[in-house]
Design brief:
about 70 residues, SH3 type barrels, three-stranded antiparallel beta sheet, 1 helix, globular
């Protein structure tokens, strides 16, 4: 059985990870809106924006995006 201090440490670490997420709304030029649980990564050398949707990584061409903003 694990000691209470180990369980408290694991719980605290999980809260820290959840607390760092920044939900973001991505709007494409054709009007579609996607909400990502985390801030997307912008790869300038590849011209892609990478975000998470339903637990999977999705890439979108930067030319197809009209705006990216944080959701409050």
């Amino acid at each position: 059985m694990k000691s209470p201090s180990v369980l408290i440490g694991l719980f605290s670490a999980s809260l820290l990870v959840v607390g760092c997420s920044t939900p973001t709304e991505i709007t494409t030029k054709d009007g579609q809106t996607v909400v990502s649980p985390d801030k997307p990564k912008v790869k300038n050398k590849d011209d892609f924006i990478t975000y998470t949707k339903d637990g999977k990584e999705v890439q979108l061409n930067k030319d197809e995006v009209s705006k990216i903003e944080e959701v409050n």
